Amino acid sequence: MFRTIAIKEWHMVLRNRTMAVTLLSALILSGIAAAGSRLLYRQEQQQRDTANRQFRQQWEQLRADDPHSAAHFGTYIFKPLTSLSRFDNGLESFTGNSLRVEAHVQHQMATPPLGPGDVYLRFGALTPATVLQLFFPLLLFFLCFNSYTQEKTSGTLRLLLIQGATPRHILRGKAAVYLGFMTALLLLSMLLYFPAMATIHNLPRIFFLVLGYGCYAAIFVLLGLWLSAVARNAGQSLLLLCSIWLCWHILLPRLAAATGEALYPLPSQPYLQEKIDQAIKTGIDGNDPRDARTARLEKSILQQYKVSSPDQLPVNFDALRLQADENYTQRVYEKYAAMTDSLIRRQNSVQHYLAAADPYLAIRSISMALCGTDYEHQYHFYQAAGAYRNRFIRRLNQAMAYGDEQGQQLYQHAETFQYKPPATAQVLRRLWLPALSLLLWLLISISLLNRAARHASI
């Protein structure tokens, strides 16, 4: 009987124009998003490659009086694009991708130019992930909202029951057909983007992305069938499903962001910079001024080389002092960076735990993490860039202090920034809660549908 119901539903779906419109709409949206994302990826990759070559050539041909003057001139480094970053660009539209490297100042990531305000205020950029997270569930709801109620209104439900079918057979047959259509539609949508990005490094991430989006879409299919079975009519079913979509995709994400910001407000950038400048001048604890630190350094260096004045030193004391200031400044920046990072993580924790009540927040966290565009990847890059910046400045100050390589040879042998993102296993360990949320909602949806099968109205 299950097979008969499934075949019957299959033929009904094929004759239903709603399926054709849904399939066409989803594929058109996915195609536009995939084409636009891949084009933007190639453009950005070309721009970053050009900028990297230009700044490297500029640095190697630099004419400076001494290495510390070169450190003041500085250079730029750029965050490498991952091949999956244009499937889900996550926070990259807001966090920036370039960092200036120079002596005495530790810059933040340069903020990218603002896009069209109306687009970003609503849903953000149109990417394949945006289509699958926001519009795909809505299309599935429109596909399933009338699946069971039309059987009641058309009178075919009683005919099926007379022939020996039960509501459980009917709902399970419908679920099998719609889940099959959902899987085919999902794979078609994702195949528009992933084949060009499939590398050995990306295959595990692509696999978990497909698995995550499959669970996410199945939740909406099962909920659509459940409400179609328990609602009085198709209008009520559609209204309830649209309310669920609005709650999960509009209200709860905004509420989570506003709650996190209200509970853990971030200090302004001018306030932080004022605190950093004060700590550098008077000490981290306020009782260690710069002059006292310089005096201790001078005394220590003179004792080390057993001389009575800096003029007698075989090394450049000014360069040693500058590097000591760099080391202390680094400690100050690390202190306030850790404080800011702690507040941001607390803000994110609100959304992280609210994902247990919202599959959209769960799949968004999973998608951004696997595509390398979440906060964790951004912070990991910033840490790597900061470490490179410190090595870069230290090498120049040491060359000035100890008379190592000078001039063009020093600049040509300067370290090139290389960034290695976190391993996939490390990323997956952080995703246990959103993954558990998706599984929980999938089980809830299955349970609700089974319950509706026992008590569905005739």
From TrEMBL:
The chain crosses the membrane at residues 119-145, 175-194, 206-226, 238-257, 431-449. Coiled coil: none annotated. Keywords: Membrane, Transmembrane, Transmembrane helix. It holds the Pfam family DUF3526. It comes from the Bacteria. The keyword Cell membrane does not apply. InterPro entries: DUF3526. The keyword Transmembrane applies. This is ABC-2 type transport system permease protein. It comes from Chitinophaga eiseniae. The lineage of its organism: Bacteria, Pseudomonadati, Bacteroidota, Chitinophagia, Chitinophagales.
